[in-house]
Design goal:
Length: about 230
């Protein structure tokens, strides 16, 4: 049985709801023009984005992939100048970066270009290209960081090299690249006479990846670094 008091509370709630609805209607009526413009702008932005993606970016991406084919073949055969600059008929990685900006292929071309420059001994240009490369792929992302470490090492910037090697090692923990980059980091720390960090890095490698190529031979490097550190 519903009491009089209960009815009053229900009526009060209904009045509050009605008042809120009334205020909302008033707000909409008062700002109808602004709301209409805002909705129209949002619709244009959304449609513009999908239109840009469908009719501009996706066709460019498809063309860029086709253009990359020969550049990748030249890269694999170590024809680095042709891979970078093209052969007169097909584009090189630098052309793809320039002509197909905003595409995944242009981004990947930065990685390839960075490795080409690294192999050619142009270490500053290698770093420049690899810094601009972005990847969610753990393996290629790790390799790019490791390549930056190599470039800094070649420039005798061993502190920076060690930092990049550690980033590369920790980007994707696995049995192949992680021990390799941990070992390189340890060697870089040794080159800066930071023997304690070298020991720690080598010991992390031995503990985590004892059966890797680097792990099987790491004891002598640990002993050497400890000896140099005075431990």
């Amino acid at each position: 049985m519903v009491t009089k008091k209960g009815n009053e509370k229900t009526e009060e709630r209904l009045e509050v709801v009605e008042e809120a609805l009334s205020k909302s209607e008033q707000f909409i009526e008062k700002n109808q023009k602004i709301i209409t413009i805002a909705v129209a702008v949002i619709a244009v932005v959304v449609l513009g984005y999908f239109g840009l993606k469908r009719f501009y970016i996706e066709p460019r991406e498809a063309n860029a992939r086709v253009q990359m084919f020969m550049a990748e073949r030249y890269f694999e055969s170590d024809s680095l100048n042709k891979a970078l600059y093209g052969d007169g008929n097909s584009l090189g990685f630098l052309d793809i970066i320039s002509d197909y900006s905003m595409t995944k292929s242009a981004n990947l071309s930065r990685y390839y270009a960075g490795i080409c420059y690294l192999r050619q001994g142009d270490f500053n240009e290698a770093i420049k290209q690899l810094k601009k490369f972005k990847s969610d792929d753990f393996i290629i992302g790790s390799m790019a960081l490791g390549a930056m470490g190599d470039a800094h090492a070649e420039l005798d910037q061993m502190g920076k090299a060690a930092d990049y090697y550690l980033k590369a090692a920790n980007r994707n923990l696995n049995e192949l690249t992680t021990p390799m980059f941990l070992f390189k980091a340890g060697r870089a720390f040794e080159a800066t006479a930071n023997y304690d960090k070298a020991v720690k890095t080598y010991e992390d490698l031995r503990r985590q990846y004892p059966t890797s190529n680097e792990g099987r031979n790491i004891d002598k490097y640990i002993a050497k670094a400890k000896s140099l550190s005075g431990r």
